[in-house]
Amino acid sequence: MTQKEERGSTFATGVFFGASAYTLWGLLPFYWQFLDGVAATEILVHRGLWSLLICLAFLMISRKIKVFWGLVRDRRTFAILAFASLLLTINWGVYIWSVTVDRVVESALGYYITPLMSVTFGVLILKEEISRAQRIAISFAAVGVVILTIGYGALPWIALALACTWGGYSLIKKQLKLGALESLSVETLIALIPSTGYIIYLARSGDASFGTSLSTSLLLVGGGLATVIPLLLFNGATNRLPLVTVGLLQYLTPTIMFFIGVGINHENMNPIKLIGFVMIWLALFVFGRDLVRSSRAVDHS
C-alpha cells in the first residue's frame, strides 16, 4: 500500500468512527425513551455507575489503569476533573430529563449551539482571536436564540444549559489534554459516592426501578455501554481526522435528534420556532464554511 493509499484508508476509517459516534449519540433519545417511567435522576446515577465499571474494564484491557490512578493522586488534576464531573453530570441530567418529557428538539438546539458557545468561551476566557465569519455566525446564533425565546414563550433554558455545560466541559478537557477514557473514568469515579448513596436510598424507599424487571435493569446497565462506546469511537476518529472534519461531523447528532423530535415525537414546531432554527442553521453554515477555509489555508501554507 502506498503512502497516499494509507492516508486515504486512515481517513475513511476515521470518518466511519466519527460518523458512527455522532449517529449513536443522535439516536440516544430512542434508548432513553425505552426507560419511560423511570425517573431521570435514577437513569443518571445508573449511567454514571455502569460507565465507571465499563471504563475500568477497558482501562485494564488497554493497560492504562496506572495512568488512571496517576490522575486520581494528582490533587490539582483531580480537583479540575471534579469540576468537569459536575458540568458533565448537569449536562447528562438536563439531557436525559429533556428526552423523558419529550423536549428532544430543544435539546437538539443545545447541541447545535454548542460549537458556537465553545468559540465564545475561547474568546472570553482564553482571549482567542476569531475571524469575521465567526463573529457573523455568533451574531446569527444570538438572533436565533432571541427568536426561539419568542417562539417558546420563555428562554430555551434546556438548550442553553446543554450548550454552556458541554462548552465549559470541552474547554476544561482541551486545557488538560488527557485521554478520553482515563479522564472519563476519574469523572465518573468522583460521582460514585453520591450516585451509590442515591441508589441505596431508592432501594430502601421502594422507589427504585432497577430490579423491578429484567428488561429495565438491563437497559439501565446498558446506559453505561451507550455512554462509553460512542466515546471510544469518537476518540478513534479524532486520532485519524483533521479537527475541521470532526467539527463538521458533530452536526450529525443534533440533526438526528431534531428529526426524532419533530418527525417521530411530533413535538410542536410553529413558524416562529422554525425561523429561529433557520437562523441557527445559517450560523452553522457560516461557521462550517469558515472552518473548511481555515483548514485549506493551513494545508497550503
From TrEMBL:
Matching entries from SUPFAM superfamilies are given as: Multidrug resistance efflux transporter EmrE
Give membrane topology per the record. Answer: Multi-pass membrane protein
Q: Name one GO cellular component term.
A: plasma membrane
Q: Where would you find this protein in the cell?
A: Cell membrane
Residue ranges constituting the EamA domain according to the UniProt record: 13-149, 158-287
Q: Which InterPro entries match?
A: EamA_dom, EmrE-like, RarD
Q: Membrane-spanning regions, if any?
A: 12-32, 44-65, 77-97, 109-126, 133-150, 184-203, 215-234, 241-262, 274-292
Ordered alphabetically, the record's keywords are: Cell membrane, Membrane, Transmembrane, Transmembrane helix, Transport
Q: Which family does it belong to?
A: Belongs to the EamA transporter family.
User: What name does UniProt use for this protein?
Assistant: Unannotated protein
- Specify the species: freshwater metagenome
